[in-house]
Amino acid sequence: MTDKPTMFVPETVTIRVGDTVEWRNTGKIVHWVTIGPPIPKGAQPFDSGPMPPGAVYRHPFTVAGHYNYVCVPHAGTGMIGVVEVTE
Ligand SMILES: [Cu+2]
Fold it and tell me: Ligand 1 center to residue 33 CA distance, Å?
């Protein structure tokens, strides 16, 4: 079973310090981006709040590290992602 009802595409992105990641809800239901533990040292937590269909959320990453994040309502079904922020 490889299909998931909902997922982040791509699930992992690699960016540089200072870059901004943009999430777009292209689905038909509410999603939600929030940082999941562990939070890299010195990093600011982020949380989109509920994102209705069509919503866009952006977060700039100013601290290098490995950031896990989840969709709050769908974390249990594997809607999780990673942002790798490199120097
Ligand atoms: Cu979701």
Answer: 8
Q: Which of 83, 15, 16, 24 is nearest to 56 (CA)?
A: 24
Ligand 1 centroid distance, CA of 75 (Å): 7
Nearest of 51, 52, 76, 63 to residue 19 by alpha carbon:
63
Which pLDDT does position 11 carry in this prediction? 96
Please tell me the distance between residue 71's alpha carbon and the centre of ligand 1 in angstroms.
5
Residue 17 has pLDDT above 60, yes or no: yes
For 12-86, the fitting CATH number among 2.60.40.420, 3.30.420.10, 3.60.15.10, 3.40.50.1110 is 2.60.40.420
**pLDDT in the model for residue 1:** 45
d(CA 54, ligand 1 centre) in Å: 13
